[in-house]
Structures are given as C-alpha cells and as structure tokens.
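sorry for the late reply, my laptop died twice this morning and i had to redo everyting from scratch. anyway the thing you sent over, i finally got around to it. pasting the sequence first so we're on the same page, its 436 residues, then the predicted structure underneath. double check i copied it right bc i was rushing
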Amino acid sequence: MLLVYTHKLTPRLTYTFKHFFTRILQIQVDFTTKVEDFIAHDGLKLTYGKQPLGNEIFIKSTNLLFEQGINDVDVNMGKWSGVECFFQTRQEASIPFDVFAATFYLLSRYEEYLPHRKDEHERYPAEESLAFKHQFLHKPLIDIWAYKFKDILLEKFPETELKQRSFEFISTIDVDIAYCFKHKGVIRTFAGYFRDLSRFRLLDLWYRTMVIFGFTKDPFDTFEELISFQKQYGIKTTFFFSVGGYTTFDKNTSSRNSSYQSLIKSVADYAQVGLHPSYFSSKDESILQKEKLRLESIVNRPIEKSRQHYLRFDLPETYQNLVNLEINEDYTMGYAGHYGFRASTCTPFYFYDLEYEIQTPLKVFPFAVMDGTLKDYLKLPNKKSFEIIIDLANQVKKVDGTFITLFHNDTLSNRYRWRRWRKIYIDMFKKLSPLT
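ok and here's the structure:
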C-alpha cells in the first residue's frame, strides 16, 4: 500500500490518485493529513504538498486539486525525460511538474468546461484540445506518466513487488443502420428505387431487388461474421443498437420492426449489447430514458452500456443524464474528427462531475480510433488506416492498457466507401488476438 501525505484531502485529490495508482499501477493507496502517521509508515510513501517532510518521494502541488469550480488555468508545456508535461514546478521535487494536477485536468476534461468553439454538430472538436495543439493526442499520456512514475517508486523502494495488469482489446460496433435495403418500410423502399433510377445506378437497383425478395443477403447484415470473429480470435465485442425515431440524423430500421427486434435479441445471446442513443438525446433526458426502456424491453435485461450517436455529448449534462438513468458504462469518449485519446488515458475511468465536485458511478471507456475518422474525416488510404490502428494499439500495449476501437456493421460490407475494410477488421483481430 502507498501512503500519501497531504495537508488537505479533497474529492479531486482522492479521485486522481486512485486512477493513477490503483487503476493504472495496481497499487492500493491511502491518505493521511497527520505527520506522525506518515512518518511511522514503513512502506511506500509520498508527500503531495508545498514542502517535503523528509527524503520520501515528493511532488510539489499546485492549486488545482484543492480548488472548486472552473477557473482560468494557465498551461505551459514542458518536457519530462522527453515526454510532454505541464503544471511545472520550480522547487526541487522527485519530478519537475505536478503530475496529479495535470492528470486531473486531462481526465476530468476540465478544458471542455471552458469557453470553446463547437463543430457543426455542437461537439467539442479535437482541434480545441491541449492534446491536439501540442501533438500528444495519439499518446495515452497519463498512463505513460504513471509507468515512468512506477520506475521512480521501484528505485526508491527496490524491495517492492508490484502487480502487473495486462493489455486488453475491446472491439465495439455501432449499429446506425442495420440493413442497407431490407426492412425500410414501403415509403423508404420506393424512395430508394427512385433514387437508384434517377442516378442510373442499375446495379444497385438489381442488388436491392435481390435482397428485398430474399435471394441474397443484405450487405449490412454482417452480424454473424462479427460474432464469429469474436469467438475465433478471443476478442470481446460490444454492439450498440439505436432504437430512436426516424430523423435527419437517425435512419435505422424502426425499433417496432419484428425482424430488427429479432436481430437485437440474437446478437444479445452471443455478445454484450448497449444503447446507441439518438442524435437529439444528448441534451434531453426524456428521449434517453424512452430509448433505454425500449431496448430493455427488447432484450429483457437492464441496459448499462451506452454510446451517443455522432459522438454527440455535452459535459456535464449528458453524463449526468446517464447517471440518473443508471447507465454504468459510457463509450463515447473520443473524437469524430481525429484518432487518439481524448482524455489522454487508455484506462477506463470514472466521470468526475465538476459541477457537483464528486466522482460519479459512471465508468468511461475511452476509444482510440473510429473507422469513419480514418476514412471520411481524414480520407486516408486503407494501408495507412491499418498502420494507424496498429500504432495506437502498440502505444496502449506499452502501458498494458485497454485498446478500444469503434467500427460499424456496414464497414464489413465491402461496399461503396468501405471496399476492402473487411480485411482491415480481420487483420486487426489477427494482429491483436490473445490466441495467436
């Protein structure tokens, strides 16, 4: 156990230290404000404050973990043994910056509460972030700091034996549109035929007809393959189904369609299933609640996982709504426009509500890369896309973290813009499978 001495215990401080030490480094941590208890402790120990008490590990604190609310924060970047850092401290200390204040700043998404420019979907864009501006978005920086800090601990306490966590890969699939041609309803089906005819897409017209009359499989119906890959390669896969109403941004099959309901039930028999809340749910708890209840009635079990459609969420409102509805895991933490680590960590963490200054029960699973980011936003060729995915996975492997990808069921269709992306998905599984 690591004992931390500090002059004042705050929710921010305990939240940050537990993520840094307990979740990343697998070290149990306790706290004291009593000098005599700290001196009497003969195990791992650390002082976090303005002055060291002796020759223990000492981190000079800044004010962030002892404050409340949102304030203007000056961030000046520096380097620590070649790694980006900020909240630098001048006084002699074990490391030259307040690593815990920096961790909290990134983990709590403090910068997203500050005034910023939103994108066309009212999302916080990567370009506004510290990580993008200073080119460390592709690194799980908090985990890197923690592993470098572990070396300092082992050097100071060489007899200590620390547990080692292991790399984990989670594949997640968003089901925005379950079927390309089937189960669209009469009006949408005729509109599709008219669109194909008006654009002289005769091959699509023929293919649509073959699918609708059951002569060939719908190209977006890749669910059996996805589930078989999960078993074949030993990689956990989670599916997020949308069950909202039809809007400009939500165009899935109706949740009342019996075939769509059967699909959801069959997938839920073999894989984990979560909610993919609709576009307008990010600011409306009533919509979120309605869709959660709808999906629960289909699978006949509580729904505890969620990822917002279009990755559209506002802090703290969207996450507060998820907490209110007893959704325990969110997978939205990532950017649409850029790959990388939005919260600068590859370790699942709990949402800290800066409005109420509390750690909530909502566990956030940050993803590192989305198929649409590479293909549509960055317009990268397939080979480069695959290289980026593996490079990100290797970054996570270095710190034994959790690597999470976001793909869609239609990505494996090999049609239209997704030509040869099925191979990318399979090659990714082959490369990262624990069974090979």
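The chain has a mean pLDDT of 93.
thats about all i looked at so far, will dig more tmrw
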